[in-house]
């Protein structure tokens, strides 16, 4: 049913927790797994290397995620992009013809902030179903 699964990641705990559900889905459906991470476009040159605005940090994050899935017998492809995270995730989903996006949620609840979250924007803009892992 889910031939291609897109897994957007960042350095959050929620993203790491969603990895387990991604592995289950990919193994069950024998899906192609694409891991995407976005270097935020508003990056400033003197931002520390441990933020999502650093291409080096994003490359390391993607390599670690690929290795984690490899240990579970899952071959994953990685995509690194620059831009607005929500729009970029949806663009990648469209480009690869994703059947499902699986992502973590920061669990902000029903507050004004939720409307501005990356997860909420992806849900609104996605060309395919989005599974949010709490």
TrEMBL record:
Residue ranges annotated for the UspA domain, each copy included: 1-134
Superkingdom field: Bacteria
A Pfam family that the UniProt record links to this protein: Usp
State the family it belongs to.
Belongs to the universal stress protein A family.
Q: What is this protein called?
A: Universal stress protein
Q: Which organism is it from?
A: Myxacorys almedinensis A
């Amino acid at each position: 049913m889910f031939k291609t699964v897109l897994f957007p990641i960042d350095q959050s705990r929620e993203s790491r927790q969603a990895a387990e559900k991604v592995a289950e889905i990919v193994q069950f459906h024998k899906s192609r797994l694409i891991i995407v991470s976005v270097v935020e476009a508003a990056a400033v040159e003197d931002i520390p290397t441990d933020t999502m605005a650093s291409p080096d940090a994003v490359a390391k994050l993607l390599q670690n995620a690929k290795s984690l899935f490899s240990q579970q017998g899952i071959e994953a492809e990685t995509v690194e992009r620059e831009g607005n995270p929500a729009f970029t995730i949806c663009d990648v989903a469209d480009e690869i013809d994703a059947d499902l996006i699986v992502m973590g949620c920061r669990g902000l609840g029903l507050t004004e902030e939720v409307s501005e979250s990356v997860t909420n924007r992806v849900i609104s803009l996605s060309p395919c179903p989005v599974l949010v892992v709490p």
